[in-house]
Design brief:
Blueprint: E1 2-7, E2 11-17, E3 23-30, E4 42-43, H1 45-60, E5 69-74, E6 80-82, E7 92-93, H2 101-110, H3 112-120, H4 129-139, H5 141-145, E8 149-151, H6 153-162, H7 169-172, H8 185-190, E9 209-211, H9 214-220, E10 227-230, H10 234-241, E11 250-254, E12 258-264, E13 276-281, E14 284-291, H11 295-304, H12 312-318, E15 327-329, E16 349-351, H13 359-381, E17 387-390, H14 397-407, E18 411-413, H15 419-431, H16 438-441, E19 446-448, H17 452-472
Parallel strand pairs: 1-5, 5-10, 11-17, 17-18
Antiparallel strand pairs: 1-2, 2-3, 4-7, 6-8, 9-10, 11-12, 12-14, 13-14, 15-16, 18-19
Helix pairs in contact: 10-15, 11-13, 12-13, 13-14, 14-17
Pfam families: FGGY_C, FGGY_N
GO molecular function: kinase activity
Protein name: Sugar (Pentulose or hexulose) kinase
Length: about 475
């Protein structure tokens, strides 16, 4: 058995896989998001670490065979300040945190994001490590002075399980251009963080691997010495777990946010700065457009209209494609948007409403708006091959029909539920030198094809979406988001 652990923003999952890649068991536990002040989102790192012990312990207690690998993945970005033992020195700053929005605007005026993008292929947004590091360096430098590492979620867990301080190329990419050669001095210089470079963990040429320590073994209930790997983080882990390896192929994770990715042969450092170029080892990259829209916005729409997630299919069936003329820009995240454009003050808008419309039209309009955002992201990322859908939103057949219609092509539906954990295991097996048939592990036979009429309607809807977006962007102001 192999166990993959996916340490998400609000849920930690442990998944067991057998030698053929079949899911043999899953455990999950929720973790909290803390909101100490408007626009600020934090997490208790000790609580997150303990959640890993809980899910792995519960899972291993009911497995019949020995566990040969513990592979970690998890949320990216944010800032996890740690001491020399990997223990937190303060609450972790989430990738959803918006305290650095004003700093991003000042950087934009000075051309900093463009410099970073030209050096690394990555853009800056309020929840990016560089923005949070620079904000703390200016506002609370003592927090950085007493930390040994400014790291990432999965790497915090890895260090406490193994004693090894390290990160992988995918996390190190954001935004400092990590990889076999380390960090980009140009990106550090542009963000004014050269003097804090010592806080960044060493970069391995793939997922770091180390034996489980005695203390780590006590937490997770596995034998000391069990191989542990760290990475890639959740976006590239999902791509690997879905079989997205051929340049031009892409995927959309319909989760809390809308993670759109396309496999590429090199980092994208030209054109308008947007998205991420994630190193995945061996000189390969993913062009990622992780929009801040997603199921968090759907939850808001359902809650606001007095419904729950169990009502989604009925609401989508009640309102026809096009939502009876209701349209929505789905930018509801407090920290704005980061793909396929960056604006920390991006906000949502509903148009076309009348007394004849009801909750179903609003919910469908948001679902269609999120699908339009996915198409916008995938076009910017260079999709020209096959497309895979996964994540919680892909469990809704009618929402999948919306995505397929908006894209105008058949979409493959990931057969397994836990693609991030699977991708972490596949990467981990490669890191420890254990051969595996990745094609067999990632085979996804289900597809959904669009009907011609919705494709025509959504093509017009997408043109309207893009025009609406361009019209409203100059009107977004920052005063209400600070």
């Amino acid at each position: 058995m192999y166990i993959g652990v996916d340490i998400g923003t609000s849920l930690t999952k442990a998944v067991a896989f057998d030698a053929d890649g079949r899911e043999a068991g899953t455990e999950a536990v929720s973790t909290r998001l803390l909101h100490p002040a408007p626009g600020r989102v934090e997490q208790d790192a000790d609580e997150v670490f303990a959640s890993v012990g809980t899910v792995v312990g519960r899972l291993t207690a009911r497995l019949s065979g020995p566990v040969r690998l513990l592979a970690l993945t998890g949320q990216g970005d944010g800032l996890w300040l740690l001491d020399d033992q990997g223990r937190p020195t303060r609450p972790a700053l989430s990738w959803m945190d918006g305290r650095a929005a004003g700093l991003i605007r000042r950087w934009e005026a000075a051309g900093v994001p463009d410099e970073v993008f030209r050096a690394t292929g990555n853009t800056l947004f309020p929840g990016a490590p560089a923005a949070l590091l620079a904000w703390l360096d200016a506002e609370e430098p003592e927090e950085l002075d007493r930390a040994a590492t400014a790291g990432y979620c999965k790497d915090m867990v890895f260090q406490r399980l193994t004693g090894v301080r390290a990160t992988d190329p995918s996390d190190a990419s954001l935004p400092f251009g990590g990889g076999p050669d380390g960090y980009s001095s140009a990106a550090l210089r542009a963000t004014g963080l050269e003097h804090r470079a010592g806080l960044l963990a060493p970069v391995h040429d793939g997922p770091p691997a180390a034996p489980l320590s005695t203390a780590g073994a006590e937490l997770v209930g596995l034998p000391a010495g069990t191989p542990v790997t760290s990475g890639p983080f959740d976006l590239p882990a999902c791509a690997r777990g879905s079989g997205v390896r051929r340049p031009g192929d892409g995927m959309v994770i319909i989760g809390t946010t809308l993670a759109c990715q396309v496999a590429r042969e090199k980092a994208q450092t030209t054109g308008e700065p947007s998205g991420m170029s994630l190193a995945t080892g061996g000189g390969a990259y993913l062009r990622a457009m992780p929009a801040m829209v997603g199921t968090a916005g759907l939850d808001w729409a359902l809650r606001t209209t007095g419904h729950g997630i169990g009502d989604l299919e009925g609401l989508l069936a009640e309102s026809p494609p096009g939502a009876r003329g209701v349209h929505m820009l789905p930018y509801l995240a407090p920290s704005g948007e980061r793909a396929p454009f960056v604006d920390p003050f991006a906000r949502g808008e509903i148009s076309g409403l009348s007394l004849h419309h009801g909750p179903a039209d609003v919910v469908r309009a948001l679902c269609e708006g999120i699908a339009y955002a996915a198409r916008h992201c995938l076009e910017a990322a260079g999709l020209d091959g096959d497309l895979v859908l996964c994540g919680g939103g892909s469990r809704s057949p009618l929402w999948v029909e919306v995505f397929s219609g908006v894209m105008g092509v058949p979409v493959t539906l990931e057969a397994g539920a836990q693609v991030g954990a699977r991708g972490a295991v596949l990467a981990g097996l490669a890191a420890v030198g254990e051969p595996v048939d990745e094609q067999a592990w990632t085979r996804a036979p289900r597809t959904a094809a669009p009907a011609p009429e919705p494709v025509r309607l959504y093509e017009e809807g997408y043109r309207r979406y893009r025009a609406h977006l361009e019209a409203v962007r100059p009107l977004w102001a920052g005063d209400g988001a600070r």
